[in-house]
Amino acid sequence: MHSRGHRKQILLFLIAVVLPSIILVVFTLRMISQERELSQKRITDERRRLSNEIGQHLLVRLEKIKLQEAGSVVNQTRLPAASDYVNPEVVLIGLVDRDRLVLPWEEEQKRGGPFELLSSSDFAQRIQRAETEEFAEKNFLRAAELYRQAIKTAQEPVQQAYARLLLARSLVKSGRKKEALAYYNALLSQPSGITDEYGMPLSLYAAGRLLDEGLNHGEVLKRIQTELQDNRWLQPSESYMLNDLIEKLIKNAPDESIQNSARESQRWIKEHIQKLEQCLALQEDFPSLVLLINPKNQNKGDEPVWLSYGEEPWLVSLAFPPARIQSLLVVVHAQDILSSLKSDSVFSQNFPLGFQFITDESSEGESLGQNFRGLRIAFETGEIEALSKDWRFQPVFYLLALLLVLSVTLFGAYLLLRDVRREVRMAEMRSQFVSSVSHELKTPLTAIRMFAETLRLGRSKNLQAQEEYLDTIVSESQRLTRLLNNVLDFSKIEEGKRIYRPEPASLTEIIQTAARAMEYPLSQQGFKLHVQVEKGFADARVDRDAIEQAVLNLLHNAMKYSGLSRDIDLRLQKKDSHALIQVIDRGVGIDPKEKERIFEKFYRVSSEENKRLPGTGLGLTLVSHIVKAHGGRIEVESEPGQGSTFSIYLPLEKE
Q1: 421 pLDDT higher than 80
Q2: Looking at 98-102, 224-228, 329-333, 450-454, which range is the least confident one?
Q3: Among 216, 329, 400, 454, which is disulfide-ready with 94 (CB 3.0 to 4.6 Å)?
Q4: Residues 6+ positions from 493 with CB-CB distance below 8 Å
Q5: Separation of alpha carbons 462 and 572, rounded Å
């Protein structure tokens, strides 16, 4: 009935605690969800605002660059070289001829130069007759003679260099390689402006012939480095030829330092080739690019458009320089302009967060405005959220408040549940204790009454039998007294009123007195008590009655749990600075899991054998309290089926 009542209390408590907690959790989570949605909306709006502002800063910077570059072109008759751009972020400035993009090296070719000089009538006729002898007639010596005549009649350095290059070729074919190599070595030092009709420097042809022969690797490397350092655009064919020459150097140069220098040059030329290829792709795609807000109305006053192009990417826009009929195409490297913006202290103060440019191929990022097409901005993870900590404070506060309320509630529930369970367990133990005490009291009282009535009625005339009856009455009275003393002592311990009065006493006498007290009950059940007392024990300050009670409880415990064994040892010896009292049985033993709990009040090992044995569960509790009150300790050594050894250690006074 008590257990059922406690279950109802626990159930009602859980309903009263859990149901409000669930409702509180649901409402709190709902509020946190709404606050998160609002915070996300604020973050989205903040991203858009920052994107528009950054787009405006970027547009101002780009338009400034465009104006500077367009202004530098106004007073020039040709497009500037790559090294002559006003701003380092600029990649290319091209000329727009109707719907076609004219690249810088193409403009140079259109101006004539070597093409006109090499195609002049007298010089060109001599070169043509020499090439006829070389290729058609296979008369290499006659061709060489005609090339020499062309050199003598040449009026320009480019004509002389060109004729020498062809002469060296015919000399190689005629078997005069040594003389040809001398011409190639001379041509290697020609400046970059000495080119053929296609704009290819003649010195590079000579460099290729020398490398094929495995000669002058160092001089060839210097020639290549000079070409790379020249302040001009390298056209694609020249760039590819330079790359081939560098690869030959890396592969065949005998000197490792030359190879390492060639590798450094190769990195530069590959980057340049990549830029050239993207320029050529831009030229091809240019007619389809929309570079105005309103393509149908191509007024110069239209808003500027910057178009993202390529994988790098590049930013491309039209410029309309004053006093020029043709417009220009200005190309800026997006990452370079981004780095330039971030290095600006004013910009960094206004936008102290990380971001990068991405193309429209990605689904992430925010628009920079209508002036930018194909380019978006992506903020680094957590940057904008870091600027909006106050937006997230309220959900965090809700969550912390919920955790605090739930923690306090659950902790209170745990404490109450623990107390209820402890009360239930204590009630069950008290009920068992009352039942055990009743049984323990009833057994000796029944024996005392039975033998006392037998003696009063005079049914036994045998003196020996009468003495046995009287001994039984005395033994059961002692047993009853010991039981009552245990109950009374435990009650005093519970109330904190148990007082011990230590005084000098002989432990040997205490052990012998306890042994004599147990002599009759032990003999009645066939036990043999083996007492071993070490000689020469001095008196110890103890409460004589308490220590004797502790020993009697241990002996009584040994009787109950000896099983079929009928031997019990009681020993007293000195160990270090302690007196050691041991009670040893050879009975059922104790499970290792139960050792820690056998000294708890009312606790009894739950086993079938234990249920059949009478007991209150107070004996070992009293023993532990008595020993600790004397400053000692009690230890247990036991194995199931092997018996138990209870050891009491009592401190001895120093001599």
Answers
A1: no
A2: 450-454
A3: 329
A4: 622, 625
A5: 40
Cα–Cα–Cα angle for 563, 564, 566, rounded to 5 degrees: 100
Q: Name every residue whose Cβ is closer than 8 Å to that of residue 614 and which is 6 or more positions away in sequence.
A: 436, 439, 440, 443, 560
Sequence letter at residue 654 = K
* Tokens, residue 361: 């191929």
Report how far residue 195's alpha carbon sits from residue 202's, in angstroms, rounded to the nearest whole number.
5
User: DSSP letters along 246-291, please?
Assistant: HHHHHHH-S-HHHHHHHHHHHHHHHHHHHHHHHHHHHHHHGGG---
Which strands, in side-by-side order, build the sheet including 375-379?
Answer: 355-359, 375-379, 366-367
Q: Which CATH architecture has domain 107-215?
A: Alpha Horseshoe (1.25)
Q: What is the mean pLDDT of residues 507-534?
A: 84
Reported as a single tens digit per residue, the pLDDT across 124-142 is 888 889 889 988 989 999 9
- 620-650: per-residue pLDDT in tens? 887 888 888 888 888 888 888 888 899 999 8
**Which CATH code is given to the segment(s) 500-651?**
3.30.565.10
Q: Which of 498, 549, 547 is closest to 557 using CA atoms?
A: 549
Give the closest residue to 228 by CA, choosing from 209, 216, 243, 214: 243
Cα–Cα distance, 404 to 402 (Å, whole number): 5
565, 585 contact by CB (below 8 A) = yes
Q: Which amino acid is at 47?
A: R
- The phi and psi torsions of 653 (rounded to 5 degrees) equal -75, 145
